[in-house]
Design goal:
mainly alpha, 370 residues, Receptor-associated Protein
């Protein structure tokens, strides 16, 4: 009978465990997808997990990922599981990745689940790029138009104002308003810029800290024309894709809904998913709580009901995600075409109002001279 006695006891290096309170910069979905894809390929090729992480650590160009890989590598050497090590970096690795890695470790299919989550992150990256591409051009046009109008009002209108004052012409109300705006822009431009910046920052901070402000902002986004429709479809597609991906790898429905609630990106949807999760725990269906939010369409709700009744919820959610993914693709392609005429009309109306307010007094003078 042999006994094992410690020969020496050393204090653990405090750097071997990452600091949970440290705030790490979030990484893009494209980088996360590449990380999962490369790790899956190396593990599937027979490379040990520690060696795979060492390779990824050495080749990582993102300083946040490199730091995270170093900490994860140290924790694995100290006997922690991969999912535990990832959970120490919640700002770097999302909850859906940690849950799927945990399920993969339990079932011994880590490389397969990494491949699935890589495909999921690629889908999220593709959707975000579509949105950016469809919004970038209208945003640039709007900014240029606003700057052009400000330039006209601040520098050209005062010239006409001085001419009309010298001619001692009585100007209409619309012209007096334009002259007032011009004076304000010329003399108080720094106050306007500071006030606008402070207002935007204040709304942003309030939305971060106040749930009520976030609810108001998210509700407004859902009710906006064109943009609201796209946000609604993106939210539905993300919910269906997230829940179906998690259910497919064996994550319980209640936990899958909890993760979908955190990744929805909209407080109105978060509340409805929370109610659906409570309904599941009470032994009821989740379609009715989702219906109350007014976000989910009858098509998705009916597919969820059929999936719950027939035991094919994962397949139904996959089909719904495919449908709304295609709708988001089509709508993003049409978004520029829909917004551009609206911008032209709005900017044209503003320019016409400026010209009308300037030339009305001149026409009056010319008429009196004639």
């Amino acid at each position: 009978m042999y006994s094992i006695c410690p020969v020496s006891v050393l204090e653990e290096n405090i750097k071997s465990v990452p600091n949970r309170r440290r705030r790490y910069r979030k990484v893009s979905r494209k980088e996360l997808s590449l990380f999962c894809r490369q790790l899956s390929v190396m593990i599937n090729s027979g490379v040990p997990l520690l060696s795979s992480l060492a390779v990824l650590r050495d080749q990582a160009e993102n300083s946040t990922l490199k730091d995270a890989f170093c900490g994860i590598h140290r924790m694995l050497e100290n006997g922690n599981s991969f999912s535990q090590a990832l959970s120490y970096y919640p700002n770097v690795f999302p909850g859906i990745l940690i849950s799927m890695v945990s399920a993969g470790e339990t079932g011994g299919v880590l490389e397969e689940l990494l491949e699935r989550i890589a495909a999921f992150f690629e889908w999220e990256h593709r959707v975000r790029e579509k949105i950016k591409a469809s919004i970038t051009y209208p945003a640039i046009v709007l900014c240029v138009a606003v700057l052009a109008v400000i330039f006209i009002v601040a520098f050209f209108v005062p010239v006409f104002s001085r001419i009309l004052v010298q001619m001692n012409v009585e100007v209409p109300l619309i012209t007096r308003i334009l002259f007032f705006i011009s004076e304000v822009l010329r003399n108080l431009w720094f106050v306007i810029i500071a006030g606008a910046g402070a207002g935007i920052w204040g709304v942003y901070r309030a939305a971060k800290r106040s749930l009520r402000v976030r609810q108001i902002v998210d509700t407004l986004f859902l009710k906006m024309p064109i943009i609201g429709s796209m946000v609604r479809k993106i939210v539905i597609a993300r919910f269906c894709r997230t829940v179906s991906t998690l259910l497919r790898v064996g994550v319980p429905l209640e936990k899958a809904l909890k993760l979908a609630e955190k990744t929805s990106g909209n407080t109105v949807v978060e509340e409805s998913i929370a109610q659906a999760r409570k309904s599941i725990l009470d032994g009821e269906g989740m379609a009715e709580p989702l219906k109350k939010s007014g976000v989910f369409t009858p098509l998705v709700l009916e597919m969820i009901v059929v999936g719950e009744e027939t035991g094919s919820l994962t397949a139904m959610l996959d089909k719904a995600a495919d449908i709304y993914d295609e709708e988001v693709d089509n709508l993003s392609s049409r978004l520029t075409t829909l917004i551009e005429p609206a911008l032209v009309i709005i900017v044209g109306a503003i320019v016409c109002a400026i010209l009308l307010s300037v030339f009305l007094p001149l026409f009056k003078v010319l008429g009196s001279v004639g």
